[in-house]
Amino acid sequence: xxxxxxxxxxxxxxxxxxxxxxxxxxxxxxxxxxxxxxxxxxxxxxxxxxxxxxxxxxxxxxxxxxxxxxxxxxxxxxxxxxxxxxxxxxxxxxxxxxxxxxxxxxxxxxxxxxxxxxxxxxxxxxxxxxxxxxxxxxxxxxxxxxxxxxxxxxxxxxxxxxxxxxxxxxxxxxxxxxxxxxxxxxxxxxxxxxxxxxxxxxxxxxxxxxxxxxxxxxxxxxxxxxxxxxxxxxxxxxxxxxxxxxxxxxxxxxxxxxxxxxxxxxxxxxxxxxxxxxxxxxxxxxxxxxxxxxxxxxxxxxxxxxxxxxxxxxxxxxxxxxxxxxxxxxxxxxxxxxxxxxxxxxxxxxxxxxxxxxxxxxxxxxxxxxxxxxxxxxxxxxxxxxxxxxxxxxxxxxxxxxxxxxxxxxxxxxxxxxxxxxxxxxxxxxxxxxxxxxxxxxxxxxxxxxxxxxxxxxxxxxxxxxxxxxxxx
Length: 473
Prior knowledge:
Blueprint: H1 13-20, E1 25-29, E2 32-35, H2 36-52, E3 60-64, H3 69-80, E4 84-88, H4 94-103, E5 108-111, E6 122-123, H5 129-133, E7 152-155, E8 165-168, H6 170-181, E9 191-193, H7 201-213, E10 216-219, H8 225-228, E11 234-237, H9 239-249, E12 257-260, H10 267-275, E13 279-286, E14 291-297, E15 306-307, E16 311-316, E17 319-324, E18 330-333, E19 336-338, E20 347-356, E21 359-365, E22 370-372, E23 375-377, H11 379-386, E24 392-402, E25 406-415, H12 424-428, E26 440-443, H13 457-472
Parallel strand pairs: 1-10, 3-4, 3-5, 5-6, 9-10, 11-12, 12-13, 25-26
Antiparallel strand pairs: 1-2, 7-8, 8-18, 13-14, 14-15, 16-17, 17-20, 18-19, 20-21, 22-23, 24-25
């Protein structure tokens, strides 16, 4: 793993960069540049505040909130103290938090908003950047680097049940970053917009790439996006965002590289971006591997490239197995880290994949495959086509029981105003095989969008099942 880390760290990265390039710009907050020395001083001040209130090495601290300067400083300070940090989605229901946090041995909680923490979690005080900046002392409170107790805990999607917390060391995050940056150019003079939340591993991926290179992280209000991206050389975006940027403000962008995710990537988009001087990348990653595992320059194929340096991949009965740099130590539960890999170190992802022309193609989740009249249906195959409809934002295809065929697909859709559900089967003709065309289409209910890490496929399936139960009564 160490051989992949282009910078050898003997201290926490933000402290090391403060020693090596104290006056270089570490962060741009809105329009204000913050030097590495100033950032290190802020982290030191917050470490003293948290330590004063009782945070100690080895304890667990949850951070709930949207990205903000305070949230990022909290993330760094907790690690520097040698504690475990768990970033939480602020929309995570309090009832679910009450279930999860005791299992994850969380001692302290800090949030950017009013929040009723479970009784077992002690709240930490709010603070402001101004408060930290007025502290003149550079006394450092920090665990040794690397600390075996300073760990990140990142919740998995929980798409089919209670989320798990994947546990990574800072070294694993840095190794993941180094692997991607051997392919994708990002240097000390570049700047990456923090456009993704820290409670997603992809958001943490941005943080550790920034720390790996000693580059500049940009923290801004994300609306409007073109203003947020002003002066940024790198960003992580979804295709829709890039389309809008190119339509409105292509001449004002200084973007050089964009890591695209979240949807299929049209060739027209990547060609248009290339004309504007922007290189587009696509890939495949997951929480358990600390973000990106495979990556390539986006092209005409739907593949995700090959494993990054330091990672290995094999297909076993069409299931993707992974091991190598960035792999989590395991899942945290009741004070223990439970292994997630087999005896040879392979993580069985439960993702279906194929190798075509030397690159990996993602087919969907093994758990989602169902059979209709003897034909295997992978819901993601149908979803990939439906999301190309200009009015569809996201879609979930789930099976319903059927007397004749065993199971049939139905689609639950989150769409823009104006979508006529009754016309979707006609629109799908010729785009997928006839037996894949859903029997019914429903609008995604608001209550399924309110909480969790992301929308639970299991919850969507249960909701559809409740509709048929209501009809049968």
